[in-house]
Design goal:
The chain is an all-alpha fold. It has one helix and no strands.
């Protein structure tokens, strides 16, 4: 983390609020991924991390292919794939 030198109190507060918001977003994304994982397993689709570590939660794509920040050939963003939350 960068030191907070030369930041105003308002700027420090803004960064702190941003950290709190992004921590909450990560918590929500992990919850969404767990729900998606459970839904797929309940439907009979079991794709384990050892065989399909980055499968898509939105389609039958079994592995994310592409650089971070890119879309997979299936058209879904990396955050829609197991392991990228």
């Amino acid at each position: 983390m960068q030191p907070d030198y030369d930041l105003t109190n308002d700027q420090k507060k803004a960064f702190e609020e941003n950290r709190a918001d992004f921590a909450e977003l990560k918590k929500q994304m992990l919850g969404f991924a767990e729900a998606a994982r459970s839904r797929l397993a309940a439907s009979g689709l079991h794709r384990g991390a050892e065989t399909h570590p980055y499968h898509c939660f939105l389609c039958a794509c079994t592995e994310f292919r592409g650089p971070p920040g890119d879309n997979c050939p299936c058209g879904h963003q990396m955050t829609s794939h197991e392991g990228y939350v």
